[in-house]
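Researcher: We're teaching a course module on how sequence relates to structure. For the next exercise, students receive a sequence and then see the predicted structure as tokens, so they can try to spot secondary structure elements on their own. Here is the exercise chain.
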Amino acid sequence: MSGCTPCEGSLGGGSPFTISLVKSGSDVLVYAQNSGRNIVVMKRLLLCREWSGGGMTINYLRKGDFIVGGEEVEQGLTQLKYSASASGAVAARAQAEYIEITGRSLSCELDLT
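Model: And here is the predicted structure for the students to work with:
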């Protein structure tokens, strides 16, 4: 999968949740990868494509638009989230707005002897 630009990669390198773009034929595929220890809930994915004739298109995508897994991305998974036409595009970028689930419940030990 292609990564971020060198600047974006250096500045955001600490994030366990990343969005990657792959060109496949005349399409751009958008993947979400969670390398952290918490579940991530993607609330919105923004895909921007710049066109050879000038201008750009921004798609604001929500869970109903995602291909795999809805809005949740479990720990250790990479999921294909969206596919869009790249025909006539010269560049594409994507960002995700997400919530990381960090709450953990506690339980008392129960002696079962």
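Model: If you want an answer key for the exercise: Residues 19 and 32 are 5 Å apart (CA to CA). The longest helix spans residues 6-11.
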